[in-house]
Write a structure and sequence with these properties.
mainly beta; Thrombin, subunit H; 2 domains; nine-stranded mixed beta sheet; six-stranded antiparallel β-barrel; 5 helices; about 10% helix
């Protein structure tokens, strides 16, 4: 038996809080989300991975992922979490060195859970990534949802991430500054790196053709950095750090997200690994 829940509630089971002990012994936090890649329609088998930013995973000596436990009936035990510790530095880096994304297949990790322990999660699917046609049909100003753990915050009692609403600040169909990025108008803080950015409309939504009755969900991108206004009056763009550090930079309530289409570039890499080809 699987739980019945709204789409907005279901996606809260797609993210994981990432806690990292860095090589300099500092402790940082970030956000990851679980996604099914390389799905075979015939066998219905997929490769579940955790996706986050490269700068969240790099330099991590010990990484801890926090999941919600699952009961014997396949239902989430919201008030019971289980932390999985990962020691091997074998994250798969995005094949494009300029794209701040990496992924980690989690099936081997979950197969090594203690006897009787199961974790509950709802993976995102690649069919949530909009096609070029769908991107062209979006408006310049779309309401978006970001899910994650700003400065490591979460609902610790119910083991839920923080959901924040905002809007697109540039049209997603365009490549911001010539890169596979777009801007969002949401306050972004350390710990939010790796947060999925979605369109989630339940009931009705606006298109260039007018109001449409119904619901839709799209995975638009992944937060990786944000512009900050410095005390000298200059604007800089930087990856959101894992660890809060003393700073006189002032966030501008803007974030830079890499387009979700870049996730699909992991699939050829994973297929080669699955076939034994490096």
């Amino acid at each position: 038996m699987k739980p019945t829940m709204s789409t907005s509630e279901a996606i809260t089971y797609s993210t994981v809080l990432i806690k990292s002990q860095l090589s300099n012994r500092a402790v940082g936090t970030g956000t990851g989300f679980i996604m099914n890649l390389c799905c075979d329609e015939g066998t219905e088998q997929c490769i579940p991975v955790i996706i986050t930013n490269k700068h969240v995973a790099q330099n991590s000596v010990i990484t801890v992922f926090e999941f919600v436990k699952q009961d014997a009936n396949g239902m989430p035990l919201d008030k019971e979490s289980f932390c999985v510790t990962y020691n091997a530095p074998t994250w798969i880096m995005h094949p494009d060195t300029d794209i701040d994304l990496c992924c980690l297949p989690i099936a081997p990790i979950l197969h090594q859970l203690p006897a009787g322990v199961k974790v509950f999660y709802i993976p995102l699917e690649t069919n949530l990534i909009p096609t070029e046609t769908q991107l062209q049909d979006l408006t310049a100003l779309e309401e978006v949802l970001m899910i994650g753990y700003p400065i490591g915050l979460s609902d610790n009692y119910n083991h839920k991430p923080i959901l924040r609403r905002g809007t697109t600040a540039t049209h997603v169909k365009n490549d911001y500054q010539g890169k596979k990025d777009f801007l969002i108008d949401i306050a972004c803080f350390p710990g939010s790196s790796g947060s999925p950015i979605l369109i989630l409309n339940e009931g009705a939504f606006t298109t260039p053709h007018g109001i449409t009755v119904g619901s839709r969900i799209m995975l638009l991108g992944i937060l990786h950095s944000g512009p900050q206004f410095t005390a000298k009056g200059t604007i800089t763009f930087a990856s959101l750090p894992n660890t809060p550090t003393p700073s006189i930079n002032v966030p501008m309530n803007l974030g830079v997200a890499v387009k979700a289409t870049q996730i699909l570039k992991f699939e050829p890499v994973l297929n080669r690994m699955k076939g034994g080809t490096p």
